[in-house]
C-alpha cells in the first residue's frame, strides 16, 4: 500500500506546475491560444474548448468558486458546494467563450512574475488594445508545490471580486436556490 501512495505522489508531482516554470508555460499556452483563435475564426465554442484544454489543469475552479461566494460558501452543505462549484465553472467558461468574439488579433505577452510571498505569485502580461498597453494579471497560489491560478485581474478588475459582488447581492435577498437559478444568467463584463 505504501508503494502505491509513493507512486501516486511521484506521478502527481510530475504534473505539478513548479514556480520556475510558470512564465514559460503561460507564454507557451498564451501563444497556442492565440494560434487557436487565428485558426478557428468564427467558431468560438471550438476555440474555447481547445483553450481550456491548455489551462484547465492549472486553474483551481473549486477555490475560485469558494472565494467568489466568500462567507456564504461555508454555510453550504457538501452537495451544495459541489453543485455550486460545477455551476460556477460552467458560468466562467461560458463568459469566457462569449468574450472570444471580441478578439481582434491582439497579442498577449508575459511581462514578468512577482512572488508576493512563499504561497502567492502574480504573473503580469500585457495586451495592446487600441494602441494602449493593458495588463492582465494571473494570480497563482502554491498548493503542495503545484502552482494554480485562483484569480485573474483583467484591466485592473478581479474576476473573483466581480463575481463575489454579484453573488453577495443575490444572497442578501435570496437563498442558494435563487443563486443557482440566476448563475446561468450572470455574465462578467
State the gist of this model.
This protein is an alpha+beta fold. The chain has seven helices and five strands, in the order H-H-H-H-H-E-E-E-E-E-H-H.
**Tally of helical segments:** 7
Proportion of β residues?
A: 15-25%
Give the low-confidence spans. Answer: 1-14
Calculate Rg over CA atoms.
Answer: 18 Å
Provide the helix percentage: 40-55%
Please give the number of β-strands.
5
Strand arrangement across the biggest beta sheet: 1-2-3-4-5
Distance between the termini: 49 Å
Main sheet: strands, sense, barrel: 5 strands, antiparallel
**What is the general shape?**
globular
Structural class: alpha+beta
The ordered H/E elements are HHHHHEEEEEHH
- Average predicted confidence as pLDDT: 85
Task: List its salient traits.
51% helix, 189 residues, globular, 5-stranded antiparallel sheet, 7 helices, disordered N terminus, alpha+beta
